[in-house]
Amino acid sequence: MPTLSSPIAVGELKLPNRIFMAPLTRCRADSGRVPNDRMAAYYAQRASAGLILTEATSVDPMGVGYPDTPGIWSESQVAGWRKVTGAVHAAGGRIALQLWHVGRISDPSYLNEALPIAPSAIAAPGHVSLVRPERPFATPRALETREIPAIVAAYRLGAQNAKAAGFDGVEIHGANGYLLDQFLQSTTNHRTDRYGGTLANRARLMLEVTDAVIEVWGAGRVGMHLAPRCDAHGMGDANPLETFGHVAAELGRRGIAFICAREAQGPDSIGPQLKKIFGGVYVANERFTQASAEAALAAGNADAVAFGVPFIANPDLPARFAADAPLNAPHPETFYGQGPEGYTDYPVLAEVRELAAAR
Q1: For the segment 274-284, what is each residue's pLDDT rounded down to a tens digit?
Q2: Does residue 336 have an active-site annotation?
Q3: Catalytic member of 43, 110, 178, 282
Q4: Is residue 62 scored above 80 in pLDDT?
Q5: Residues in Cβ contact with 186 at an 8 Å cutoff, skipping those fewer than 6 apart
Q6: What kind and span of H or E run contains 262?
Q7: 14, 52, 285, 320: which could join 95 in a potential S-S bond, CB 3.0 to 4.6 Å?
Q8: Can you list the alpha helix ranges (DSSP code H) found in 109-267?
């Protein structure tokens, strides 16, 4: 029976454990959305993860919606990410880049005063994250059919740039109410062209992007991030199991390396069904503890588990799990923003023990 510490083959990747680092937006890139030395240190500290999934990284300037998040469309960004992958590999780790386009979850202030783009002209509920004073999301501009190939091309270029930057693979961000998710779910997609209406049409863009990324990387180094509970940024679907089951089946047919699903365990969880439909490595994510993660593996409901906040506060999370050691407490007030505080200054277990012994 596998445990969190068991090795696992994920597509072409041979991983030493099943403890993934979940994608975590930290808003610490430099001007031009360029990764920097501090980001390299942060990821290298967490190289003992079975696989690091990077923070969401925009494939196009129109795909940004938060301050100081990184991109992957420019040569300077590729050079910055190369520092990160080099540091992680030097520390013995493996790292995949998450490819992202926020769609409607943006604001003209991030887009040279252009409207955000989306499948349909439907505003997201709530307000723009990290913009003060608070203001509601703008009503986006619906993409014209002729514009959609350029979206696919942006993901393809992002995948090519990720390879040039030295990553071990990529994960497509198809979750959390961002662009691909907006096309997929019926609440946000009211189109009447070949990208709307039927389930096959609503899934078309996600699968076209997947095919483009596979052309660059091969299926064995490509993952997909999904959020089957439809609980972020005003999302919703008439039949989540049918919708996400269709996606899982299509991804399984393509033989991609893994699906990572943000779906906290609960009576409405459809993850076990999606895992069966997909037939490949299924990574569970959201609010797992060491105990609940081990239980999910033992029950066959997941093949690996991705941890978010625990990895922020515990750069050596696999070692702490192996030793049944206490975890550092996270500091949410420093999750976003510049500087090392709450980013690269969390102590590893040996430092905690040394401090305790000195008292």
Answers
A1: 999 999 999 99
A2: no
A3: 178
A4: yes
A5: 202, 236, 237, 238, 243
A6: strand 258-262
A7: 52
A8: 148-164, 179-184, 199-202, 204-217, 240-254
